[in-house]
Amino acid sequence: MPKHPHLSNPSIGLGCMNLSHAYGTPLSEDAGIEALQAAFEMGYRHFDTATLYGAGKNELLVGKALHDRRNEFFLASKCGMEMVDGKRVINGRPENLRRQCENSLKRLQTDHIDLYYLHRMDPDVPIEESVGALGDLVKEGKIGAIGLSEVSAEIVKRAHRESPLTALQTEYSLWTRNPEIAVLATTKALDITFVAFSPVARGYLCGELTNVAELEANDIRKTMPRFSAENYPKNMDLLQDFLLMAKDIGCTPAQLALAWTRMKGEHIVPIPGTRSISHMRDNLSAGTLTLDQKQMTALGEMINQGKAFGTRYNAAAQADVSTEEFA
């Protein structure tokens, strides 16, 4: 499978996290396998998972669902962050990354991972040390390429000098514009694919989540200021013109959000995540939706970092990322 610049064809990938992690009660194994196999059959060829998701269960799920199709799709996973005794732990030491890679290969039922990200930078380990270890895994054929997640442009440059990066993954959508500060330009200049996670704003831009009180207690959005009982109704008010534009264009709100993200740069690949097979199909078809410059500009002015109510992360989650922040 191609590694660069678009990682796979079609240009929209599938974030697999939702099936096992962070959004309330996970799907059963049978339902998760059914969803992943349906995604493959409808045309997805880029599947993104991680050691962290479901404490390894998401990788197991992807392995069980797709191992017999392994040479037909692009597989991405992540290391450096895992669940230990029920707590999320960041550890970017070389010996730990190697251990996690070996375990990921077993869970995924494969002898290589096409793209392996450092999920979060370990503040106690120089980025060059972590990326150097991933470079060794490339030389050994265990991974095909190196990626980083949620880091600044300066970290990208440092890492890229140590060992060439193929991708950078960071949250990017109409209401999360941090990559526009520096990372989008840096990745483009260095010929690094920018992989946009949460491109439909964790469901907000789909327009279907109208009442955050309906979220399960263990839904990650419960910890996010934009989804608070105080802020979310204000954000829903902000969404109304967006929903009208989608209706006027004749697409779903999710498709409109994905088209905007995809068209913000030729090197951008969105990876929306969902548990719904119908939503998977809906998202994938956004790869053919084209917006004109007037529509792109209107959308950018309609919903943006300055207009959204609340920050994207709470203080604890924000401490784990090194992305540039707006003043």
TrEMBL record:
PROSITE patterns: PROKAR_LIPOPROTEIN. SUPFAM superfamilies: NAD(P)-linked oxidoreductase. This is Aldo/keto reductase. Residues 12-301 form the NADP-dependent oxidoreductase domain. It comes from Marinomonas arenicola. Keywords: Oxidoreductase.
